[in-house]
Specification:
The chain is of the alpha/beta class and 252 residues long. It folds into three domains: 101 residues, no CATH class; 76 residues, no CATH class; 60 residues, no CATH class. It is built from nine helices and seven strands. Helix 1 packs antiparallel against helix 3 and helix 8 crosses helix 9.
Length: 252
Amino acid sequence: MKPKERFNASGKLRAFLIHIIASALVVGSIGALMWSLWFPQPWFMHDGGWQVYQLILLVDVILGPLLTLIVFRQEKPGLQRDITIIVAVQLGALAFGTGTMYQYRPAFIVYGDSNFFSVTWNEVRRSTQDMDRLERFVPDRGPGMVILRPPSDPKDQSLFRALRSTDGTAIVSRGDYYDTLADADWNALFARGPRIEDLAKLDPAIAADLERFRKRNTAPMETLGFVPVVCRREIIMLVFDRKTHTIVDWLD
């Protein structure tokens, strides 16, 4: 390889490495924000976060630096223009992906029809008249946990029943009917929840998940409550501490 070719090759590699490191730092920061605030586990892996983040990784950490590797030549006319276009496309894809993640992050985990349902902010905004009252249900991190409370007024009850769909997904986005889960609600949902041991006897996959859960959790089974949650892409089983009502784990 001639000295000039070696110089061009080293410059190309240096530009590629700078680009991929800078891209990885930016996308990694976005991922940390998503993981810690918008999609804390289990929602990141099971409620759409990982799927969108993969697209951001593909465009901003893989395709962008690869294009730089292809077009970069030390003395190429228009090189600055080409790099500017690549970076602009990356920033556009990053802004679009981040905006999508923010808009479709899980806003609430709503209990209704004997299940929890994951509901996005976009769904809640379309279905709720009084958005201001929802502020008290929103925690600092992750989605808020609420119950769908039927109205007490007979006229409103008729409207509530008319809104209900067969699978519960339409009515659970109606934020006007959200309420805090009281102790009586928790006791009732734990009583109605499935017996995980019985499900494990019927389904080998659940039995395997339960075995892995028992290996990493030493709490007595009678202190735990298992409740299904319908996420956007799949159904998982949330595991609650019956006393504190906090999520301690989940079964995939």
